[in-house]
Amino acid sequence: AESYLQIDKIIAACKATGAQAVHPGYGFLSEREAFAQALKENGIVFIGPNPGAIAAMGDKIESKKAAAAAKVSTVPGYLGVIENPEHAVTIADEIGYPVMIKASAGGGGKGMRIAHSAGEVAEGFARAKSEAASSFGDDRVFVEKFIVDPRHIEIQVLGDKHGNVIYLGERECSIQRRNQKVLEEAPSPLLDEATRRKMGEQAVALAKAVNYDSAGTVEFVAGQDKSFYFLEMNTRLQVEHPVTEMITGIDLVEQMIRVASGERLAISQADVKLDGWAVESRVYAEDPTRNFLPSTGRLVTYRPPSEGPDGEATVRNDTGVFEGGEISIYYDPMIAKLVTHAPTREAAIKAQARALDAFAIDGIRHNIPFVAAVMQHPRWIAGNLSTGFIAEEFPDGFSLPQPEGEIALRMAAIAIACDHRLNSRKRHVSAQMEGWRKVEFERTRIVSLGGERFEGQVSEQGGAVTIAFPERSLTVASDWRPGEPVWRGTIDGVSIAAQVRPILNGVSLGHAGAYADAHVYTPREAELAALMPEKAAADTGKVLLCPMPGLVKALLVSVGQEVKAGEPLAMVEAMKMENVLRAEKDVTIAKILAKQGDSLAVDAVIMEFA
Fold first, then answer.
1. Tens of pLDDT along 549-595?
2. Beta bridge partners of 444
3. CA-to-CA dists, residue 295 to 211, 303, 364, 568, angstroms
4. The pTM is what?
5. What positions carry a catalytic annotation?
6. 45-46 and 21-22: which strand pairing?
7. Which residues contact 293 (CB under 8 A, 6 or more apart)?
8. Count of H helices and E strands in the chain?
9. CA-to-CA distance for 25 and 245, rounded, in angstroms?
10. Who contacts 394 (Cβ-Cβ below 8 Å, separation ≥6)?
11. In Å, how far are 2, 440, 531 from 577, measured between CA atoms?
């Protein structure tokens, strides 16, 4: 609020540096008419649409009015400004539940709440207004019908200052959490050519109606029957623009700059051809095992996969962070966008899965385990998507999948290969006692992995290791060295990558969406390890822990108060999101250890229960 939302500071920076133009990026002031107007008045070019188009489309209330006037199909809702919770409840009752409460100037999932009852409308109204004010400097909200089992499909448009507008196909953005996209792909597995053309032509008609003259996105909510309704228009570059670039070969940022300088589009609608399939994973600093709550801290390790060709696929990683950098509580948790492109959807998904396996991040919690698991999910692979995907497929929340079947066997082989490499190094330790017999290592290895036990016989030939399991033998080849966070190699000639972190008597592994500690033993070590007691987890049922690093916005109870399950206890803000912490069972507040305004670390105790 004191930096990137301050128009005068940005203009001052332009003048101090001699900048001729500003590209506003994805958020902040990118959809504010006042910002584009202020730049214009100071002789600085805004690399985006003209102020009038922003006013008509960037404001979600006004954009729906414009869409209705252009005879574009719209979702039922109330397009006026709503002043108080009582008014919001009245409107929601008339529209019918569920409803979506949405910030007029919003974007990126901020200032949005789904409500299924009058009580949820009242609370959601307050939260949406507050988030909208802190994120966009505009607290207006509106209410519309929430379409059940919808898909989120958007059309990329591109216009110039000479009245030309084209569309560049669609993107499927249905996999979301907290109304914010996690995975995107282009094209959509739902659409056929006729529906694509119909949506594209509506998007172009809407853009022309407001004299749109830059890159922009017209978002639609689509039914599984291919019906669609206008949702909103984002008058800026989208985070997911790379998937469109990969399938069209058109650099959207380049086109925005060319249009802003006054050039005509050199591309006609007939020139737009869709080639292959692209998939994007947003890599977020968040903990998927804690309901995707934000995570902050230092990037102790940040090593993305290599960009460029990967067989028939191509890997691209757009990022703005670096190893050793810090993820703060003040901005959006997205740290990278991993994109793969291939001739087919199946090949693009497989390439994405390989790239995620090779993406090493330490120091913060991140969502790579989640998106890696989705890449293996049958429903995702089948393209049977909706915005309810995460809630429906992970109703009890996300937990790290345990390895099974072929994936478990591959992980056991990698663990044994790592252990064998470590043993090989030990043979060459210098200054060993002369005359002492050469150390001979046991060739039988037993791997305890995710509750399963694998026994393999190790043999080495020509730089590769063959591991004979009872069911079959696997040949493993890799130049992995101890200490490297990613194991890359081949298993039976197939390229494989896996996350590898050292633990006592083994390695912690992540591969193909599955995660487990692999303890590697000799037969005698395995016998002794089976006798070791397991440490019991601490009981946290009598305390409220802060689920992520954040700022205490409000304490909603007092000492001695009796609280019922589901009632709010406190509100913690992190990365522009206000998170209400609720009682999981009936409790009495015994002690409150935090106060409003405190900055807390993850798992800090906020209050104790009697």
1. 889 999 999 999 999 988 999 999 887 788 899 998 899 999 999 99
2. 457
3. 41, 18, 6, 22
4. 0.82
5. 232
6. parallel
7. 286, 287, 547, 548, 574, 579
8. 15, 37
9. 16
10. none
11. 17, 57, 47
